[in-house]
Design a protein that fits this description.
This protein has 315 residues and is α/β, with parallel strands linked by helices. The protein has 2 domains: 118 residues, 3-Layer(aba) Sandwich (Rossmann fold); 162 residues, Rossmann fold, CATH 3.40.50. It contains 12 helices and 10 strands. The strands form 3 sheets. It has a 4-stranded parallel sheet, with helices on one face. Strands 8-7-9-10 form a 4-stranded mixed sheet. It is globular.
């Protein structure tokens, strides 16, 4: 097989590529690619245009300003490194300009190369789309067998969650919060994951983008479980905004707050990356929504304490 030189412009794509055994062929990744650990040793081909150490409100304002400017993206690509690598394949996306280098900039950079690489655009909106993307990447890289093995494992784990959740006696109302200041609900695959995990999401919409919502809408829904998975934030970084969340009118009286079922989770590692670990996101949600069904798999107790995500088994 011809030598492959792959550039990943998405953390989720990097996770796919490594899961398919393409470690050696991946020549560069984004500055946000931190999983698996081996990805940290790859050259970074992107950088953020946002200033570091901004508050959540400042990040939101900067994102709105940047996306409204001519740059229309939050990231830029190192074209000199791209030319040096001379990739045979680039894996990117155009689903969200907040998540990666703008698709138009990628195509412009590709046009400047002496030899045009293949470009795969990943644009999943639901969990099934993510599984299809894994298959597509497997075909494009000649790793069909590895993709089939990975997909069989992922589908088996999805089926196991569905089977156990079918025993649930209730479907709690779940508020999935993707940003605290201002409030954004979860979108795309996350409302679907909540349904699969045995909950009801009355705020987000399956397959649609996450969107800013009024706190009054969240409060009116009276969620019995709240999951804070701030896009791009670790659990520890999200917890820095806990005072902002608690300050919203009526927060302390919500059923989820009174029951101790407000969960901060690692949004950077799980729910915002449409790759293989999206199935781990489903498993985590199922444990948070129905701890009575997943007691032997729950890290910590079921009183609202954040699970120790480092203890989650990586299959």
């Amino acid at each position: 097989m011809t030598e492959q030189r792959i550039v990943s412009l998405l953390p989720s794509a990097t996770e796919m590529l490594f899961a398919l055994g393409l470690d050696a062929e991946v020549c560069a990744v984004t500055h946000e690619c931190d999983y698996p650990v081996a990805a940290l040793g790859k050259p970074h081909i992107t950088r953020s245009l946002l200033a570091p150490d901004l508050s959540s409100g400042e990040i939101d304002a900067a994102v709105r300003e940047q996306l409204g400017a001519d740059a229309h993206s939050l990231y830029t690509i190192d074209r000199a490194l791209l030319a040096e690598i001379a990739p045979t394949l680039i894996v990117t996306q155009r689903l969200c300009e907040v998540c990666a280098v703008a698709y138009d900039e990628v195509l412009e950079a590709v046009r400047s190369l002496p030899t045009r690489p293949a470009v795969i655009n990943l644009e999943p909106e639901r969990l099934a789309d993510v599984l299809v993307d894994i298959e597509r990447v497997g075909v494009a890289t000649g790793r069909q067998a590895a993709a089939a093995t990975l997909l069989a494992d992922l589908r088996g784990r999805i089926a196991a969650v569905r089977e156990r959740v079918a025993r649930a006696q209730s479907r709690p109302r779940v508020a999935f919060i993707e940003w605290i200041d201002p409030i954004f609900c979860g979108g795309h695959w996350n409302p679907e994951l909540i349904a699969m995990a045995g909950g009801e999401d009355g705020i987000g919409r399956v397959g649609e983008r996450s969107q800013q919502v009024e706190w009054a809408q969240v409060a009116a829904y009276q969620p019995e479980v709240m999951v804070i998975a701030a896009c791009g934030f670790t659990e520890q970084r999200s917890r820095q905004d806990e005072p902002l969340l608690c300050a919203y009118p009526g927060f302390a009286e919500l059923p989820c707050a009174r029951a101790g079922r407000v969960h901060f989770v690692d949004g950077a590692a799980y729910f915002s990356r449409p790759g293989p670990r999206l199935v781990e996101s489903l498993e985590l949600l199922a444990r948070l929504i129905h701890p009575e069904l997943f007691a032997e798999h729950t890290d910590g107790d079921a009183s609202g304490l954040t699970p120790d995500l480092s203890a989650i088994e990586h299959k």
